[in-house]
Amino acid sequence: xxxxxxxxxxxxxxxxSTSVHAAVPHPVTPPQxxxxxxxxxxxxxxxxxxxxxxxxxxxxxxxxxxxxxxxLAALVKTEPxxxxxxxxxxxxxxxxxxxxxGDFAHTEMSRLLREDDPNSLRNISLWCTxxxxxxxxxxxxxxxxxxxxxxxxxxxxGFFDYLHQDAHESAQIFNRAMTTSxxxxxxxxxxxxxxxxxxxxxxxxGGQGHVLASLLEKHPSVRGTLMDLPGVVxxxxxxxRDEGPLVDxxxxxxxxxxxxxxxxxxxxxxxxxxxxDDDSTRRTLRNVVAAARPGARVVVIENLVDDSPxxxxxxxxxxxxxxxxxxxxxxxxxxxxxxxxxxxLIGKVVPVNAxxxxxxxxxxx
Length: 365
Fold this sequence. Notes:
By secondary structure, the protein is an alpha/beta fold. Helices cover 44% and strands 12% of the residues. Helix 2 packs across helix 5 and helix 4 (69-76) crosses helix 5. The chain is globular.
C-alpha cells in the first residue's frame, strides 16, 4: 500500500476522506479566534500526546507500510481503541497521518520520534515533557511577578540538585537530550566556521565535546581544548579521550568557566551557555577576554527569542528557563550588549541553522 503524503505541520484539518474510518472533510479555512484560543489552552494535551507516543515507541513500531491501530497496538502492547484515539489526535498536527481506509502512516514529523532517525527528537520530546515540567508551568504567573525561578519552592531544592538527587531517570533523559541536540548541531557548526590561521581551538562549556570533535575531524592540523564541569567532561565524546582517534590533539580541562578559563587558543567557542543568568553571562565573557590574547577570535552561538522563524520554540524555552533556573534566552540586542560590555568587538552575525546564530567576535588589541 502506498504511503499517503505527509500532512503539513501547519494544517490542523484531518486528511479528507470518504472512508467511514476517517473524519468528515471540511473546507480548509483559518480557525476563528475563539477556536484558536481553545486549541492553545488545550496545548498540554498535544504535548502529552507526543510524550505518550514517544514513550510507547509508536513511531519505531510503524514501518514504511501503513498499519492499523490494532496492528500497532499489538506491537507496542496497548489497547487498540485508545491508541487509535492517540494517533487521531497527533494526526491533526501532522504527526502521523490517517489514510483513506483508516490506517496510519508516517509523516516527516512522526519519523523524528524514531530512535533510529539521524535527526531524532525523541529524547528532546521526552525532556520537554518530563514530570517536573507539569509541576512548574502552572506557577508561571508567579515567576512573571517575581522574575525568579519557582523550582525550589515546588521541589525544595534547585533544578540541577533535584535532577541528580531525586529524579535520576529525568537526569538521564536530560543528558541524552542534550547529547542528541549537540551532536546534531556539531556538524553544522563545523561546516560554518572558517579555521584559516587557527592552530588551537577551545570549546568553553562545551559539554561532551561534540562540536570540538567535529572541528578536529575536519581540520587535521588543529589542536583543541574542551572545558566544562568535572562531571560533564568525565563523559566526553569517545573520540576525544582514552584510545579515541583525536586524543593526541585534545586537552580536557575540568573547571567552571564562570570562575576562570585557564585556556589559551586562537579561537574560543561558547555555545548555549549564556542563558542561565546575567551574572553568569558577564563573568563567562569577561573570563574569556582575560584568558585570550589580543586578536583571538570568539564565536558565541545562541538561540534568539527575536528570531522570527523559530520564535514559537525559543520563546517557550525562554519561559521554561525562567521557571526552572531563573534564566533567559537572549534577543539579538541583549546578546550584543552583553558581548560588547565584556570588551569584545562584534563582527558579523550568521545563522547556523533554523534555531542558532553565531556571533563572530574578536578580542581587541
